[in-house]
From TrEMBL:
Residue stretches of biased makeup (Polar residues): 18-31
Lipid biosynthesis in keyword set: no
Membrane topology note: Multi-pass membrane protein
Protein name per the record: Amino acid transporter transmembrane domain-containing protein
Domain Amino acid transporter transmembrane intervals: 52-447
Molecular functions (GO terms): L-amino acid transmembrane transporter activity
Transmembrane segments: 53-74, 80-104, 132-154, 160-180, 192-213, 241-262, 274-296, 316-335, 356-380, 386-409, 421-440
Subcellular location(s) per record: Membrane
Region (Disordered): 1-31
Major location category of this protein: membrane
Keyword field: Membrane, Transmembrane, Transmembrane helix
Family: Belongs to the amino acid/polyamine transporter 2 family.
Entries under Pfam families matching the protein: Aa_trans (PF01490)
């Protein structure tokens, strides 16, 4: 589909304000516009307005795609790695993920028809790469949706003191996720992202304070002298270390969603502002939570970490975080379903119009993703193992290697090849190499962990089990 030359030129330079009428005057405002877009086609008053996300709302959506499930496993990762190696690994992954997230913005401005990683793969390496990226993206976000449902079920179990079968709680999470994920635009979901992000941040900081003032963690011996056994450096096996690092990767692995967020921004030239704000808040939050909770709980930190500060505070923390976990789940479902809908209806009038074809396709996409994610959440009900597997197998593959390839695609043929350009070449190549290493090693470690969790005595919940899944340590 061809774009109006004026619109195309403005999109190339990120100046879309010159081409739209009725653009949002404040971040997150929702107004109707009449415009042509390389992805969504003609966007007008007779259909959903996909281009109405301000830069602050974009930053919150990015933040919510990251702060959620991953943050709950950071103290456990520190326990496996030790304090200093854990901090170093966290900051290193933060640096790589921030660079990867930044690369999305310039690439999107240079190639406004790109909606997701599959479009970038097609542009860089042809149809095979496109389908590889499409498959990886789809599986990644479906697994994240399943992780979100599992997190919600843990929260409901904690709040109700296992008041119902866990399989029922997972089904409830799936139903709620489907209903809210079926809202069609990110602009209309942005207020939920605000609520969800606030709930997660408040919950984890309440946990952090509780961990600091409690006499001892809930999982520690409740009689006799006790002192936190945190370690400056631990001595994990290769499998344990890689699984822990994979959990840290997942905490930053919302980067693949940044393409979709950028595509729905009213002014994409503000993308860099959004992504840097997102990553700064995420890194500060992760660092504080990981350091404080692990320092006070040591090896008795729970997984998820919200169960570390006693029965009462466990219920308080889960009560606060539950809306955030629900928002994470619905956002993951929405992003995956939106990808399928765009790919199915792209180039037709039904993508941005209120036709029965549009609604049928959209609801089939959200419903199908929800059902598959529910099966994953019920089939792999061990939170820590599922988080590690998703981070290793898909998080690195979606967050590191493609962004390095995108940089090479846009910058390899530059005429001026000074020392700065050479340093950037080395960095982009390093991102691809380290991403591949983490993907292979982390997947191996996570699979070993899942096998061990099933074979160990009392090794947690089984598939489609009614057992309480909120007491993992």
């Amino acid at each position: 589909m061809e774009m109006n030359p004026k619109v195309n030129d403005a999109a190339e330079h990120g100046d879309l304000e010159q081409t739209m009428t009725g653009a949002p005057s404040q971040p997150g405002d929702v107004q109707n516009v009449q415009m042509s877009d390389d992805v969504f086609g003609e966007v007008g008053e007779d259909g959903p307005n996909y281009r109405n996300v301000g830069w602050i709302a974009a930053a919150v959506l990015m933040l919510k795609s990251q702060i959620g499930i991953g943050v709950l496993s950071i103290p456990t990762a520190f326990d496996v790695l030790g304090m200093i190696p854990g901090i170093i690994c966290l900051l290193f992954i933060a640096s790589v993920a921030t660079w990867s997230g930044f690369i999305v913005g310039p690439f999107k401005l240079r190639h406004p028809s790109v909606y997701g990683l599959d479009d970038a793969g097609m542009m860089i390496a042809g149809p095979i790469a496109r389908e590889m990226m499409a498959g990886g993206f789809t599986l990644y976000w479906i697994f994240l949706s399943g992780s979100g449902m599992l997190g919600v079920s843990i929260g409901l179990n904690a709040l109700s003191t296992h008041g119902a079968c866990t399989a029922i709680f997972v089904a409830v999470a799936a139903a709620i996720g489907f209903i809210f994920a079926s809202v069609r635009t990110l602009g209309r979901l942005s207020w939920l992202a605000w609520v969800g992000t606030a709930c997660v941040l408040v919950s984890v900081f309440v946990l952090t304070v509780a961990a600091g003032v409690q006499e001892r963690p809930a999982a520690a011996p409740q009689t006799g002298p006790w002192e936190s056994n945190w370690k400056i450096a631990a001595n994990p096996t290769f499998e344990e270390a890689m699984a822990a690092v994979s959990s840290l990767v997942l905490a930053y692995a919302g980067v693949p969603a940044f393409f979709a967020v950028a595509s729905e921004m009213a002014d994409p030239k503000l993308y860099t502002r959004s992504v840097l704000s997102c990553q700064l808040v995420a890194t500060v939050t992760y660092s504080i939570i990981g350091i404080v909770v692990y320092y006070y709980c040591g090896s008795f930190v729970a997984s998820p970490a919200l169960g570390s500060a006693g029965v009462l505070m466990k219920k308080v923390c889960y009560g606060l975080v539950l809306p955030g976990l629900i928002v994470s789940t619905l956002l993951y479902i929405h992003l995956t379903a939106k990808y399928f809908m765009v790919r199915i209806l792209r180039g037709s009038k039904h993508l941005a119009a209120n036709t029965w074809q549009h609604w049928t396709t959209w609801l089939c996409c959200t419903g199908g993703i929800t059902i598959i994610a529910y099966c994953i959440a019920s089939g792999i009900p061990v939170f820590e193992s599922l988080v590690s597997l998703v981070g290793a197998l898909f998080g690195t593959f979606m967050t590191f290697q493609p962004m390095g390839a995108m940089w090479f695609y846009d910058n390899w043929n530059k005429v001026e090849r000074d020392w700065k350009w050479k340093l950037r070449v080395c960095w982009a190549a390093f991102v691809i190499v380290i991403g591949t290493f983490l993907m292979i090693g982390g997947t191996y470690g996570s699979v070993v962990g899942i096998i061990d969790s099933y074979s160990a005595e009392g090794g947690g919940s089984g598939a489609w089990s009614c057992a309480d899944n909120s007491n993992s340590v």
